[in-house]
Specification:
Length: 105
């Protein structure tokens, strides 16, 4: 067996032993990244909303602050709706399954 045959045989064995290349779909990657980012934003939005409700119920906000906060939360909700439509995601798509911990949202 000459050197070239040996190298070809070795390369064929390495190819057979190595895992197949991963075929990535750019559209799926884009949607998956959007799903992750929007999930984090939705989680933060819900936390902000709960904090705002606690502050409102506690009386620590003026009427003007309540109005501004309500308007800001409404705008954020509308923006989230737009992003979900843009990436063809549903609200349930943002509720990631964390395995034994259950659903995120």
């Amino acid at each position: 067996m000459n050197t070239l045959d040996f190298m070809n045989t070795k390369q064929e064995k390495m190819d057979a032993d190595s895992p197949q290349r991963i075929k990535l779909d750019p559209n799926k990657m884009r949607k998956g990244l959007a799903q992750l980012v929007l999930t984090v934003i939705e989680l933060l939005r819900q936390l902000l909303e709960k904090q705002a409700l606690r502050r409102m119920e506690g009386g620590s906000l003026t009427e003007e602050e309540v109005e501004r906060l309500g308007f800001a939360l409404l705008q954020l909700s509308e923006q989230m709706d737009w992003f979900r439509k843009e990436f063809d995601l549903t609200e349930e798509d943002l509720n990631l399954d964390l395995g034994p911990l259950g659903k995120l949202l």
